[in-house]
Amino acid sequence: MARTEYPRPQFVRDGDWQSLNGTWQFSFDDDDRGRGAHWENGLPNNHTQINVPFVYQAPASGIDDQTVHDIVWYQRDLAITAPQAGQRALLHFGAVDYFADVFVNGQLVGHHEGGDSSFTFDITDALTADAQQVLTVRAEDRTYDETLPRGKQSWTGHAEAIWYTNSTGIWQPVWLEVVNAARLESVRLTPDLDHTSIGIAAELSDAAIGGSLKIAISFKGELVAEDTVRIVANHTVRSIDLVQQHIFRTSFHNDGWTWTPENPNLFDITFTVLAVDGQQTDTVASYFGLRKVSRENGMIFLNNRPCYQRLVLDQGYWPEGLLTAPTDEAFKKDIELAKAAGFNGCRKHQKVEDPRFLYWADKLGYLVWEEIASVPYFSENSVDRVIDAWQDTVRRDYNHPSIIMWVPFNESWGVDRIHYDTQVQHFSTAVYHLVHTLDDTRLVMTNDGWETTDGDVIGIHNYSHGDSAESAAYHHFKDTLSTTEKILDQSSANWANFANGYTYQGQPIVLSEFGGIGFDASRKDGWGYTRATSVDNYLSELTRVLDALQASECLWGYCYTQLTDVMQEVNGVLTKDREPKAPLEELHKRFVFPRFGRLNDTAADYRH
Asked: What Gene Ontology terms describe what this protein does at the molecular function level (predicted)?
């Protein structure tokens, strides 16, 4: 089983590339002997093999060992020779958890820190004239270091409660491409719905200066706009009008050009770099969705219209691959099943997902709240790492129209003294403003769940729905959700809704975690917040809990826990093997509230 799909779907270069997924040589280095023994020149004779990009803990890796090994080495041959003059060889990693040293032919070509972020090294100068090169990676993941962002990965060495098997080393695709020195380095696409235009900020290599950049935009195969700009610096900014005639502009929304979950329309955009003599040196294909995210009068808006969030908590774990999807089709299947069950998006929980997932969310019309992996505790080192992670994440995923919310913190993880410690509160506020500095086109939460500081949306977690409709707990649950005053005044957990000194400022309120009904007739040891005993009982429990949300006058969305069972947790609407626990049409009836089904024309349609 090898992942062979093009790994960077929003920046597809028309050129020579090769996947490096598949069989690599592999060694544990528990005593940290590898550097001193120069394993970059050859792994020890007792090495084994691993199937990249699956971590050694995952069955799909071919090793399937869940014991702790914090230092691991990878090695394989590269079928590439030193490129011709005017070309460069770029080596790409989707993600390596957590530290990575990369060697080519025994030469260190780069070091990277960050378990969820993508990175690239130019390896041209390390290549020889030989037909085969040797690529080596040393990865280190300090299991017991509580300053590292780790999300839902256990730091005890085994899965338990809400924590899962940890992942060490390469866990997203590795690939190689040969490019022209005169090329497009990156592009930032900012849709402007109100002016029906697209903002383009392009970064180009030094060798491209003096040439020109041609931009072509099409919609459903029809050319919409073209522009050509002389490249006079590394950075070029353009704004292109997408609807150039008044008659089209006035009927714009009815023409179906915008991106929504119901109609995920996408524009194709192609960038061509031309040398001074007109010779083509680089071509990159991308896409964007024309959509706007905002908030108004306590509601979340998409394209200037109210958009009720019907989200599902998605941990992004698979039995065979752990954090790594077994196939590209697996991403698509999860989204299709979630939509069939009635959800219009997900809160991707405590991981930065593979860009292929975001591609399918863009294509299929699926809202995404994106998080990074949290650190366990607040410290100087964890502050640095969280800030780096957010800069990397926003930079990589900025262009995806499906992402409508960034979620910096969850349940005070990594900001554990936030209620009373002003230093921690400053950090939370600083990250909120940092993310908005990097991207002011989306909404930003702060601490999802409780102890909120600043934030564009208030996320409340409440699992206290009791075990029956007659229970006092259920009546309190329903009453707590009924009005703005009650949901803000009655904390559902042992933590206050706001950190000390912060108050409600009229933001939309979302029940961003609830439910978690456990159901698996084959397992008696599975974990959930409450338990169902049969399909009928499961549907009845869903109805009971969701009725309380439908009766609420203040909620502007929800996020149900959770999409799939994960290890010891059996509270998914799907099993770990992605089988629905009840007929999808029955799930859909419950998760889609009649008055919040689609994007309505006016906000009044959503009010009692």
From this structure: hydrolase activity
